[in-house]
């Protein structure tokens, strides 16, 4: 099955997230999940490996829980 940006995909915590980016070799995807995530989970999210089209956001105050977290997933 071919994955596309905009498709739904499970985030690492098992929520229904949405694909926002797919690498050219299709071996990594980024999904944005609307559900709450703890800081512990956030540390797994890796913004640095994203491509140029996916710029890092400015650092904001850390909340205990965050929504709309972007996860990079190797597939
Ligand atoms: Zn999630």
Layout of secondary structure:
Layout: E1 8-10, E2 16-22, E3 28-33, E4 37-38, H1 39-42, E5 65-66, E6 69-74
The structure holds zinc ion.
Overview of this protein structure:
With 75 residues, the protein is mostly beta strands. It has one domain. It has 1 helix and 6 strands, in the order ββββαββ. It has one helix at residues 39-42; strands at 8-10, 16-22, 28-33, 37-38, 65-66, 69-74. The strands form 2 sheets. Strands 1-2-3-6 form a 4-stranded antiparallel beta sheet, with no helix packed on it. Strands 4-5 form a two-stranded antiparallel sheet. Strand 1 (8-10) and strand 2 (16-22) form a beta hairpin. The protein is elongated and about 35 Å long. The model has no long low-confidence stretch (mean pLDDT 80). Bound molecules: zinc ion.
How many structurally independent domains?
A: 1
Average per-residue pLDDT, rounded, comes to 80
Distance between the termini: 12 Å
Strand order of the largest sheet: 1-2-3-6
Oligomeric grouping of the chains = single chain
Query: Which small molecules are bound?
Result: zinc ion
What is the number of E strands?
Answer: 6
Structural class: mainly beta
Large-scale geometry: elongated
What's the helix-strand series? EEEEHEE
Largest sheet: 4 strands, antiparallel
Annotation field: number of helices: 1
The value of Rg in angstroms is: 12 Å
Binned, the helix content reads under 10%
**How much of the polypeptide forms β-strand, as a percent range?**
25-35%
Query: Segments where pLDDT lies below 50 for 5+ residues?
Result: none
């Amino acid at each position: 099955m071919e994955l596309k940006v905009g498709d739904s995909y499970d985030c690492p915590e098992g929520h229904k997230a949405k694909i926002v980016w797919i690498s050219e070799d299709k071996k990594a995807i980024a999904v944005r999940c609307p559900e709450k995530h703890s800081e512990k989970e956030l540390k797994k999210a890796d913004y640095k490996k994203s491509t140029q089209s996916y710029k890092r956001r400015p650092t904001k105050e850390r909340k205990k829980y965050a929504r709309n977290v972007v996860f990079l997933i190797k597939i």
